[in-house]
Amino acid sequence: MKKIKFLLFALVCCLYLPVMAQVRVQVVSKKVSENIPWKEGMSVHLNGEQAEIVCTTHPTHTIQLEMTIISKHENQSTAEADLKKMKWITENKGNKIYLRNYVELGRGETKPESALKVVYNLKIPEGCPLDIRNYFGSIDIKNVKSGLKINSEFSKIGLENVRGITDIQSTFGDINCSDTGGDISILSNRSDIAMNGLTGNIDLDASVAEIKLGNFGNVKKLKIKAEKSVIDLNIPQFDRFAFSLDLKDCDFQKPELINMESSQEDPSKIKANFQVNSNKPLVTINLNLGSLAINP
User: Which long-range contacts (CB under 8 A, 24 or more apart) does 168-173 make?
Assistant: First the structure.
């Protein structure tokens, strides 16, 4: 009898599993396209939520916006209803152009059950500053050279061929920069930082991060302040730079030419200087708890 029950149970499972496998996620979307006139002195301010933002420049005096709103749910009617709850606006106020998406609920409506996402494909004029805020998603910026400001949470950030003044604040969002220069300031919390092909002045303030920097190029100044972090500098010609290092509770891997001093009062503190009084570009690192590797 037990054997018969087991066989019946196995048969039911075999019949049920294909039904489960046939459940498909329904995807509905809506596309929005808009060309916004631009003139010298105007800036773009994008406020995204659950957004994937891609932006580059083009040699015209218009802002080209292509936006796709996507809703995913097992039930198509639910996906369609939730799609309508994601709203967007574009408006001009003085010299500022505002782009924004947000969830809006009418009277009696419930929060969306679907997975909602907004994809921005944005092209801005070469002389247009850009200010982005995003919560959950990603940000990819290429060729922006007239000023960039990012403040994001839970959003990966990628920069390529970015110049000018760049100011980034990131919480729980890794940052990857290549061929980046100008005056760059990054404030991060629990966000890894990878930078390659650097020029100009770099200022990093990080908490709980893995920081990897390589191909310094024509860096004029590099300043890193970090805690609970791992810093890895790949500098084949490290003697082109001056170093001022202040470390506490850290492992330190260094070239032989860099001499370090330990504090007699506090052995956990390490100070190291190299060519500080020269005219060479200065690398200043202040690290509390973690490790530093300078790889020549």
Answer: none
Same-domain check for residues 37 and 169: yes
- Within 13 Å of residue 211, how many CA atoms lie on the same side as its CB? 31
Q: Is residue 138 part of a domain?
A: yes
Statement: the pTM of the whole predicted model exceeds 0.85: yes
Q: What's the chain's Rg over C-alpha atoms?
A: 26
CA torsion 146→118→172→168, rounded to 10°? 10
> pLDDT digit string (tens) for 100-156?
999 999 988 899 999 999 999 999 999 999 999 999 999 999 999 999 999 999 999
CA-CA-CA-CA torsion sign (259, 263, 268, 270): negative
pLDDT tens digits, one per residue of 12-45 = 455 454 544 456 999 999 999 999 999 999 999 9
* Same structural domain, 169 and 204: no
Same domain for 220 and 257: yes
Q: Which domain holds residue 203?
A: 199-296
Q: How far apart are CA 22 and CA 250, in angstroms?
A: 54
Helix (H) or strand (E) holding 7: helix 2-21
d(CA 145, CA 150): 14
Structural domains in the chain (count): 2
Count Cβ atoms within 10 A of the Cβ of residue 161 and give its class: 0-12 exposed, 13-18 middle, 19 or more buried. middle
